[in-house]
Design goal:
The chain contains 9 helices and 14 strands. The protein has helices at 12-22, 50-63, 110-118, 125-130, 149-156, 168-182, 188-191, 232-241, 247-257, and strands at 6-8, 29-30, 38-39, 41-45, 78-83, 86-93, 98-104, 140-142, 161-165, 194-198, 212-217, 258-267, 280-283, 287-293.
């Protein structure tokens, strides 16, 4: 059982390794896919209060990114910026002086709020895929947390949840969103069921196996021309993290960490993530859930 919202960063050594892997200081954030496409990012604040500026200074040091005293002073087009609404990744057009919001984690409004208010049936496809039943809520590891949308729904449905995100940019956005949700009375109880880890899920296998009832995987989809992947949010995420090329290792880690099942979210017409036999599938309009059940005879040390 978790004792409230827990934030766990990697060890200093692992943080350094992760930051060097994803965010070289004052250089590009490279795509894992090996493409030449990349974006430069700095950190700033639009708020004049000392607290926001201190947060921006601290985050720039943590991520080894350049700090800009203002958007106008930024040497980069893309900026992680603290605003009155929290941390956002924006695109600043210097010529027009305009700001385009790209990524922002907000569990208090928009689609996240709608799902929390109107989509809390355990008979919905996502809940069924995770193994929820009347009187039973599995412990879940969301091993590819991203912006936390599906994970937050798991916690809203009553599950004890571990969110694991290895990309430092996405982790910072998710961390900020959860901290704001923790301070709101409408979502505080939900956040109390969440543990957030900055880590590569594959490295979690160094711990004791079979820690979670369900391991949930939603790796970055292969590039395609469908409208879903043309959405701005997913295009930006792809620029930051690229494709998950180590999906085989990720799936193997999921099997080690799961007691009962591994759930893989895939585009509806995409091939399976692995050649391993799928126990069963739940089909949706634009995606599906491939469920891999763990044999009951497996012993756990």
């Amino acid at each position: 059982m978790f004792s409230g919202f827990v934030l766990q960063l990697s060890s200093r050594e692992e943080q350094t390794k992760i930051v060097k892997s994803f965010i070289p200081m004052k250089k590009d954030i490279q795509k894992n896919s090996g493409s030449d496409t990349s974006i430069h990012i700095s950190v700033s604040s639009t708020e004049q209060c000392s607290t926001s500026k201190e947060k921006a200074h601290w985050l720039s040091r943590r991520l080894s990114l350049a700090y800009a005293a203002s958007l106008e002073a930024s040497a980069t087009e893309y900026i992680l910026v603290y605003t009155k609404d929290g941390l956002q990744l924006v695109r600043y057009n210097r010529k027009k002086g305009s700001i385009q919001r790209l990524l922002h984690v907000d569990f208090l409004a928009g689609k996240n709020r709608y799902r929390r208010k109107n989509d809390l049936s355990i008979h919905q496809p996502l809940a069924k895929a995770a193994g929820m039943k009347p009187g039973f809520r599995p412990t879940i590891l969301d091993a590819t947390a991203g912006l936390g949308k599906d994970g937050f729904l798991f916690a809203s449905l009553g599950c004890q949840l571990t969110l694991c995100e290895r990309n430092p940019i996405l982790f910072a956005l998710l961390e900020d969103g959860l901290l704001r949700a923790q301070n709101d009375p409408c979502t505080r109880d939900i956040v109390e069921r969440i543990r957030l880890i900055q880590e590569d899920s594959i490295l979690l296998t160094k711990q004791k196996p079979a820690l979670y009832d369900t391991v949930y995987l939603d790796p970055m989809y292969p590039q395609r021309t469908s409208s879903a992947l043309n959405k701005q949010e997913l295009r930006v995420i792809r620029q930051i993290v690229g494709d998950d090329r180590d999906v085989a290792d990720l799936f193997a880690a999921g099997k080690q960490l799961a007691r009962h099942r591994v759930v893989v979210k895939r585009p509806r017409l995409a091939p399976p993530l692995t050649e391993e036999k799928i126990s069963y599938q739940i089909q949706m309009t634009s995606c599906r859930y491939d469920i891999y059940l763990i044999p009951l005879q497996r012993t756990v040390d």
